[in-house]
Fold:
Amino acid sequence: MIVSSTDVLRVLPEIVLAVFGLLVMGAEPFLRRAHKGVLGPLALVGVAAALAATVVQGLHPGYAFNRLIHVDNFGIFFHFVLLAITALTILASLRYLERENINHGEYYALLLFGTVGMGVMAVANELVLVFLGLETSSIATYVLVGFRRTELKSNESAMKYFLLGSFATAFLLYGIALLFGATGTTFLPDIARLLGSQDTPSMLALMGIAMLFVGLGFKVASAPFQVWTPDVYEGAPTPITAFLSAGPKAAAFAVFLRIFFTALEPAHEAWFGIIWASALLTMFVGNLGALVQTNIKRMLAYSSIAHAGYILIAFAAANQLLTDVADEQARVNAMAAVLFYLVAYALMKLGAFAVVAHVSAGERNQDIDDYAGLHSRHPFLAACLTIFLLSLIGLPLTGGFLGKFYVFTAAVQADLIWLVILGVVNSVLSVAYYLRVVKVMYMNEPGGTLTVAPVPAPLAFVLTFAALGTLYLGVMPGTVFQIASRSTLP
Amino acid sequence: MTLETVLFYVLGGLAVLGALNLILQRHPIHSALSLILVMASLAVLYLLLGAEFIAAVQIIIYAGAIMVLFVFVIMLLNAGEEERTNLSRMARYVGLPVAAVLLSGLAYLLYRAWPVDLLVQPHPSLGQTRPLAEMLFKDFVLPFELTSILILIAVLGAVVLAKKEL
Amino acid sequence: MTDWLTRNAVFVITLAKIGLVLFVLLTAVAYLVWVERKLIAHIQSRWGPYRVGPHGLLQPLADGLKFLFKEDIFFPHATSRFVYLLAPFLAVTLGLMAIAVIPFGSGKFELLGTQTGLYIADINVGLLYILAVTSLTVYSVALAGWASNSKYPLLGGLRSAAQMVSYEIALTLSVVGVLLLAGTLSLRELVEAQQGHWGGLLPRWFIFPQFVAFLCFFISGVAETQRLPFDLPEAETELVAGFHTEYSSLKFAMFFMAEYAHMITASLLVTLLFLGGWLSPFPAGEFWAFTRYLPAAVAAGLAVVFLQDSFHHQPLSHRVLVILVGLALAGVAWGLFTGPALLELVQGPFWLLAKAAIFLFIFIWTRATLPRFRYDQLMAFGWKFLVPLAVLNIMVTSFVVAWGAD
Amino acid sequence: MTCPSELADRLVIRKLQSFHPRALQAASEFRGQLIGVVSAALIRDICDFLRSDPELRFDFLVDLTAVDRYPVEPRFEIVYLLRSMKTGQRLCLKAPLTGKDPRIDSLVPLWPAADMLEREVFDLFGVHFTGHPGLRRIQMPDDWQGHPLRKDYPLEGDR
Amino acid sequence: MVPLSYYLVLSAILFGLGVMGFLLRRSIITIFMSIELMLNAVNLAFVVFSHYWTAWKGLDSALSGQVFVFFVIVVAAAEAAVGLAIIIVVFRTRASLNVERVNLMKW
Amino acid sequence: MPDPLLPPPLRSESMTLNLGPQHPSTHGVLRLVLELDGETILRATPDIGYLHTGIEKNAEKLFYSQVIPLTDRIDYVAPLSNNLVYCLAVEKLLQLEVPPRAQWIRVLLTELTRINNHLVWLGTCALEIGAMSIFLYCFREREEILKVFEAVSGQRMMCSYFRIGGLAGPIPLDFHHQLDLLLKILPERFDEYEELLSQNRIWLGRTRGVGVLTPEDALAYSISGPNLRASGIAHDLRKAEPYSGYENFDFDVPVRQEGDVYARYLVRMEEMRQSVRIIHQALEGLPEGPFIANAPGIVLPDRDTMKTQMEALIFHFKLVVDGFAPPAGEVYLPIESPKGELGCYLVSDGSPRPWRMRWRGPSLLNVQVLSKLLPGHMIADAIAIIASIDFVLGEVDR
Structure:
């Protein structure tokens, strides 16, 4: 048989998601407008079922589909993270869509299908599959970004995201082609084996790595390939912005880690410099850019660029530690730092954008100044946003703090002191723009336009979950960090 | 000079000319036609390289479906000639030189990467559709299934975006 | 000289074959127009062309001359001269290109010391080649519509682009069933897979197990050639003349030729895929041996018809012409009766063309009989009926094939 | 008003008179056809009344045209031919208009059928219909001078 | 016979021209076509490499390069559908295909 | 009324398409300005006047009897109906009695005209929808009818056969024989058309539910004739206000409720069969007697009398030079022409020339209703609707 039953079990979450996506899509035309509300919960059930399926998948680790898929702890970890992000996004979208008058089942179907792509990325062991997973999630998000299609900004950002995304895809593909040319295979472990058998990586492989980095760097929004981020984040429907800043980024990092630490591991010296420089550039571009923003979505967009930079520091550290065979534990810690940071980052970013999605309905309340006096109008929202912003700064007792702590620790262990210092400098820089929002919310008088509807229950759940999660990671990071260190790549 | 060599130079030249024309023409229809020319010459090059199936797919899907869609949209929107505007300074002073340097470097490196005595040569499993099909439906069955979701997304997305009323 | 010829035999033979096929094809196109006019006229109880030559047999010649010497309306106000000229050129080139991989028979013969067969090129993916070439024909129509810079052509061009792309899907899908049974993409092997007879009588043609696919294929084929009832792109009463409203003289004739060339290709392809191509419908064996003489008999019959007809014609020139044609046919018949090698070679093309003629007749017959679809009905028919039907056919066929393989 | 006594007790005449005292100016019958001369100023109300009255129901506008009585004044007669689909009765209404700036209310709000008929009268007689949604020339070219069906428009030769 | 590296150079040139087009052109639809050109260049590279590994190294599994091309074409089709839909929407809301006019938001 | 809950539709530019005046399916020189969204019609504005011949004006300078040939040219597909309505109007003005034989022949020939008209209608309508052969079949039968006309009047199309007071001359000797043959083949041929169309899936798809005209709209737009009857209103002037002796004939008035193109097609098909019925009756019961009224001073005396009797010569002379002068007054006379209510409004000032002749043709109103019927349909439907509604540009523009 071409496909065995264990094969199926190892992609069960994706199958479940796809089936529910089809259900949502198929039900859409048969529902009257008043009943479209059931599609969101249906999608949510799908994600929950996929979470359960991930547990099943976790019980059957190993290769599947002729080694196209490698189900390991790393993949399972990302599956959980990605599914949680999708679930929170759906919850945050429930009321938002009704309010924005774009309540169509296709939205949820696209989210689910996009998550299928991201799930595949997390467990892919082969470049064809990586590429297809990446494109599945990208094309779904291109559409989602432009979902408010009569809105000028929305379709502008869809256009920019699409053009630059496809551009980056072409680079990624060229990179893959060159790697294929250098090794004659597209399986990650085989690439590693063949590259390892050469003394120095061939010219083709090196060029391939560079091109791959361009493509993946775009997907994680690292400098200098970050230009699309603010525009796309600003124009997209805000729950999608939240999703974009967490989901595809996490999935892209998963692929990034897997390709670079599995396939390209023998050539790691070659790409260390790129990562290092990119981390630095990304942090500065993100933080300096955020400083001058007045639009809150753009500000958060730049902040997410900056955070990609922090993650890249840990990435560089893990890479540097590859040479040091002895210090196995330090390398694991460095990689676990990436995973931990991603979780913390996803929680706080999702939460922050969820608040923005509720306050900045339609085209209103986009400016930071519009948040003046949010505290007096809506203490719950203000408090949640404050927690997320403080966590983004990296103040103690928040997930953001410990994330940075682990990252910088890893960097110190890898002797990347300069990188750490510059990272800290950046964190200090970032205090300015995050605190400005907090100050505006608490100190300033509310403006006339700030009328906020009461928080609907699903959104309240999302915010509470994210806020508590952020605090939990900040107070008791142990469990999650443990899990993360067991989920690293070998 | 054998027939193959001549064909390579002619078709390669056509492809480069088409690509140049694509970026130099101001009317999108002409650009699209140039791109079709590139695709057609590439298809014949694929034949020379022994990839018959890919050559056919290239014409059927790429030139026969995707580019038709382009032409269709250009006609539908009645897109006129591109306005002549100045390039953004960023693109002109940084982007283009960097791109030019990088890519000529790339071309040179690729030229150096392989010895010149590696020639195109026939091989039994090239040009057969069967091994390709077996690979596609046995080894790569999962990606193949994934493409169905991908296409579903594309259809769904295109309908959601471009439909007049929802 | 002979030396050079034998050295470059393949090259020379291929060129010669291309020339021959092109000549035959162009003549066939011209006379297909005559046949269509005659047939439709008779269906509509008229005479049809009658003046030029006996029974209007020289009408195609006259039409051709007319097209040549008609005043050319050059570039009415075309958006782009290049594209305006490219469109008809593309149409006719692609129309003629598709014929290159059609095998006309299994017969082999030796020429200039090289074995060769009744085809221009026998390639592995012949079917894909034809699909590829036909998938490009949409450009000629779309570009013509666009370059004319006029509203009716534009509408016609848009319609045709949508129509051809849509029906191409049904067309391609319906072929898959046949491919599953035959397991090859080569047209020659596809025909060879249909050899033999069920129960010694019923030919093993794919039309029987794949009747649904056959219907889908033929209907989509009619739609692809944009003939009635699918002739919306050039629906005369709606869009004047559709995409070629602004074309005249030779450029118009090119579109015209392309349409008929497509008809011929489509008929040949249906025959190859579903009706056993050049295979005779009669089983092998002593009892049926006499059927080998059918081509000769047909030629003889035609000769008799022509010679007898010469009594009815008044103008001397007509009479002479008819007698000459009749004598030529009689010569052919005689040659076939006495030369077994020639008879053998002719078997394949004879059956192929005879079967294709049936489809050509259906093409013309539907045109004379059926009203025209509306644009949305046409699209709905393609997408909601033909495509699902073709997919269903693939599923059933693949299940049966898989079952049989186990 | 002038009205032969044998017509006075016709239902239409009575109804019209009771509808408005100035509605009917004269009535006559010729070859079995009832002809009412009505006030041009009231034409729309009269037609509306005739159309909607449950007993009369003149709901079918058969024709709308004009006659030029040049040189008599009032020069134009706008002729309305009505038919009742209920009773099968026919009625001819005439609204006299003077030659100087002839204008009358349009009936398009009542019968969309009046659209082109009124345009034709406008085109060929030069009668203006107030309230018509698009009063343009219909038979003659847009830049034509004069109104051909007027009696002072020559029948032959250049104008 | 032609050295394989010539094909690679051709691929690099086409890719470079695609990048140039992307940076130079102002019309969304032409930019998109430049991207398609880049994908075509990638496909050529894949076919060349696949040929190299199969015909020169006898690695039959390297036919996966052609499989990759097949997938790239499929993805390109999907991208074209979505991309052109986006272009249509942009055109409908702005009546222009010039990227510089589609610029409410600053980088 | 758009649903306020729906998101606003995407804007798209509409395209203006000029259908005509030179277009294969506008039956002459009609110009329709169509505003299109894709292929869907948003607005349709008929633009007429390309065939304006000024017949109404011309009639004002001719004697009453000289107008007859002009009327042929108005609805050139049904010329005898035009002759009939004009003669009837003048006869009403004069209060002239027409001998029964003339009346019956008039009925017979106008019914033949009706078949002729409907055949042309069916042929062109089918051709418009793409059924090419029907067109030629219809014209084949039409040719037979035209041969009858030619035998009767010497003209295939512009017959001018009716005169004020009767007919221009006696019917030919083999008239019965000719008609018998015709009447035998016609019903068979009608069956043949119906076989090709009535159950044809494509034909049904193209005509059913297309261009639905509601009875209310039909009345508001003053639609009459087959179009009105296809919309469910059983109104036929031959029954409602019989003229020319129609009360003596037994026939049915076909009615359909749907009001779409298909209903109009069916109504006309049935009307042709009913016309055959009427012709049968007229032929069988054709009364003997003179073919024209004996009304000296109005009807020209026949050549023999004119050459032998002085009085007749004087009448002839006076009629040719001065015409005849009906009393001052005005009449409106409607008949049921193949296309609907055809009316002639004549104003006499007591002079030998009509003061005003107004031609109330159904075609103008049929064209006008297009602006109501077309919006919301696709171009192809528009062609089908235009073809189904039946008008002649000569009558629209006059």
Observations:
- The two ends of chain B are 61 Å apart (CA to CA).
- Residues 128-166 of chain B form one domain.
